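Following up on my earlier thread - several people asked me to post the actual chain instead of describing it. Fair enough. Here it is, all 226 residues.
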Amino acid sequence: MSLPSSAEMARAESERGEVVLRRRTSGTGADVIELRVNGVFVMDTLETTSEIELAAQALELVEQPGAVLVGGLGLGFTLQRVLADPRVERAVVVEIEEALIAWMRDGTVPHGPSVLADTRVTVLNADIAMAIAEARSTYDLVLLDVDNGPGYLVHQDNEAVYEARFLTRCRDLLSPGGVLVIWSANPAPALLEALREVFGDAEEQAHSVLLQDRPEDYYLYLARHA
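Reply from S.P.:
Thanks for posting it. Predicted structure:
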């Protein structure tokens, strides 16, 4: 029996609220998996350009990105792009929602098992702030996609991720010449200012995407450790 145009695939509750996977049919008839948190659209498998560019832009800037920290597993597209680079020797991905990790591992998200099976990957079920604070090694790249950005937060507690104190911890975790990249659904001038305060310089990139048949711009914020 064929699925309706939109159907729930999986649902979980945590102390932060509700995490849901839905399957919908795109305009071309293809199945699309959609992730929602507390009813807010987070990402899907149809438009993955900005998630991939989050990794691709950073990888271009570092000659030897041997160690990479990814904040936010999501549906795995940033991590997948990281692993496609043979220079990467170690990738640590931090995801606070245990259910999302399980859905990636058990094949609820079909491409998930092959991504997480890569022997270079370590998955930490933790809050990104705690993971950064407790890190015992440095990284060549830190890639953060833990919320929709400072102007469109799913979880208000993530506000601190975009502020100078946390960004300083990220800088201190980077190897010399290492790069931090942060994803945002909206322009974030305060984030850009905070990055420039901490790193001395930073760049904003707009990436045009087609989101649920509507043109949108997503944003990447990049800064390099001297």
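Residues 6-43 form one domain. That should answer part of your original question.
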